[in-house]
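OP here, attaching both records as promised.
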Amino acid sequence: MSDITRCSRLAALAVTVTVCAAAAGLAPAAQAAVPATTPAPTHAAVRAMDRAVQAATGTADRLTPNAPAAAGRVCLFVAPTAVGALGHAGWAVMDRSGQWYSGATETTSAKGFNGNWLRGPENVNSMLGHFKDQRRNNDPYTQFRCKNTSSGSPAGAVTKFKGLMGTDYNWLTNNCLTRSVATLRAYSSAMNGLKSGVSVAPNTYYTVYLSYAGWESSIPLR
C-alpha cells in the first residue's frame, strides 16, 4: 500500500470516527475534520517586509498583515482553543490604500448582526486590535496567516459577508469558516481555488489547507 493511499484511508477513518462521536453526543458533528498531518511550510517573505511600509502604518517594530507592492491582500485569523480545540475563524481583506475590512461569525444565534460583526475601513492597527479584543476572555484569536493577491474587491467581500449573515447557520455547511472562505473568494478570483471549508475544523484548515494553497506562515497576534 502506498503512503498516499495509507494517509487517505487514515484521514477518511478519522472523519468517520469524529462524525460518529458527534452523533453519540461526544463531539459537535459540524466540526468533523481531516487530521492535520502536514506541517505548515516556512515562508520567509513575511519576515522580510519593507520596514518603510510598516513605519507608514505605525507598526514598524512588529510583523503586520501589510506587505509591500500588494494590490490586494487577504488574511485568515484563528482562535485555536475554541470549540473544544477544533478552532474558530475570522477574515480580513485590504484595499489598495492599505485600509482593512474584517468580520467573523462568532455564534450560532439569530441572523444579521446578532452573533456576527463587520468592520472597516480601518488601519491595520485598529483591525488587529479588534481581533485581539473580540474574544479576549473566551478562546481568543491568537494568530493569522495572509496571502497577497494581484487584485481585490473589498466591496465584493463585504457584500458577500452581509448576504451570508442573512442565512441560517449550519455546523457543517454554513459556519465561521465557510463564511470566511466564501468572503475571501468574493474578494478576489485568486482565492477561487480555496477549499470551501465544509466539514473541516478551522484549525485543520488553517494549518493544512492554507499551506497547500501557498499562504505565508502563521504570525502571532500580539
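Record two, same layout:
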Amino acid sequence: MKLPTGASKVVFILAHPADHVGAPRHYTPYFEAQGLDWHMVPLDVAPAYLADTIRALARSRSVAGVNLTMPHKPAAFALCDDVGPAARFEGVVNTIAIAPDGRLIGESFDGGGFLNAAREAGVFDPGRRIVVIGAGGAGRAICHALAAAGATQLRILNEHPEPVASLAGQLLDGFPDLDIDLEARFDDAGLLVNATSLGLHEGQPLPMDPRLLPEDCAVFDIIAARRTELMQAAAARGLQVVDGVAMIRHQLPLQTAFWRGET
C-alpha cells in the first residue's frame, strides 16, 4: 500500500470514540485499486466540536470527503447545505462531499450498502418478515432501503419507543402498503438485522436471543469491527450470517462516486 504524500487526498471518518474504527483497512486499499491516491484516516471528534471540525476540513484542498459514524450522523445532516434523497428521508448523513464552491453536500449510503450486501448474500426476501433492531441512523437508513426495495413486512424494535413510532409513521407516509409491526417477537422472521451498536465491544449484551429465530432465518449484523457474539451464536445454530464488512464493501463504490462528484 502506498504511503500518503503532500499530493494525496484524505477521507476522514469522524467518530466519538474512534478506537473501534477499522474502516481504513477496507477504504484505502479500495481507493488504491481504483487508481486514486486517497487515504482514509479516523478522527475522534466530540459532538461539541463536530461543526467546527467539518467546516475546517472543508477548507483544505487535501480533503476528498468526510465519512460519518456514531454518533455524528444526525448532527452532520444539519450542517449540510444540501442533501440527497436518501438523507432527506432519513434525516441523517454518513457521507459528505465538498462541492467546488465549498458547499457541503450530504447523503446516506448505509441503506444502499446494506441492501446490495443483502442481495448479494441472498438473504433479502421481500415476502418474508424482516426484523430490524435499532431505529437510529443506520436503522432508519436500512428500513428505508428495505421499504423502497419492495419489502412487504417489516418489524422495527428499539430500546426507546419514540424513534420507532416516528420512523414507522414516516415509512407509512411513503409506503402505505407496508405492513409494519412493532411487537417484540422473532418466530416469523426471515431476516434479522442488528442495526444497533451492541456487539461493538466484547462483553456487551446481545440485542436478542438467536434461539428465538426460525431455523431458516438469516442474520445480518452491521457491526464490522469484530465478529460479535450475536454472529457467533447465530452461526452455531447453523443460521446464515452476514456482517458489517459486507455492508462497507458495498458502500465503497457508492461513496467514492459521490465524493468524486459522479453522482
